[in-house]
UniProtKB/TrEMBL annotation:
This is VOC family protein. CDD domains: VOC_like. The lineage of its organism: Bacteria, Bacillati, Bacillota, Bacilli, Bacillales. Signal peptide: none annotated. It comes from Paenibacillus chitinolyticus. InterPro entries: Glyas_Bleomycin-R_OHBP_Dase, Glyas_Fos-R_dOase_dom, VOC_core. Coiled coil: none annotated. Residues 1-125 form the VOC domain.
Length: 144
């Protein structure tokens, strides 16, 4: 396997593409539109990483978070200025899930949910922490 590509299902795909452009500086590569105007498939990049997006197709069991009421996955955006992108996402219409804070594992991170129900963690590495130290910090944080 050469790479894994996230695939997001969104009830209103065109609206989603525009949101990602505003919130995360996404670049639209292409979209395939059905005769009635529904975006069947599109490809964007965020920071050079490819993300596929498609509309919902209930007849095939393809439903997005808006329809099912939650999501079971998240996407992490590792960027140079997490605070800036976090505020940009909020200004574009995302909802804060966790505030931007320095984390025990060496990142400054916060998370948002986009208007379509997808979860995004936005982070910047502020200090490299080796796995052994990270485990110690994790146990100390959670009282073990």
């Amino acid at each position: 396997m050469d790479k894994a590509t996230p695939f997001l299902w969104i009830k209103n795909t065109a609206e989603g593409i525009e949101f990602y452009k505003k919130a995360f500086d996404a670049v639209e590569k292409y979209r395939l539109t059905e005769p009635g105007g529904k975006v069947a498939h599109a490809e964007i990049t965020i920071g050079g990483a490819k993300i596929s997006i498609a509309g919902e197709y209930p007849e095939y069991g393809i439903l997005g978070p808006e329809t099912i009421g939650n999501t079971t996955v998240g996407i992490q955006l590792q960027v140079d200025d997490a605070d800036k992108l976090f505020q940009q996402a909020i200004a574009a219409g995302a909802t804060m899930v966790n505030p931007m804070e320095d984390q025990f594992y060496g990142d400054r991170a916060g998370s948002v949910k986009d208007p379509f129900g997808h979860y995004w963690m936005i982070s910047t590495t502020i200090k490299t922490v080796d796995p052994e130290e990270m485990q110690k910090r994790f146990l100390a944080l959670y009282g073990s």
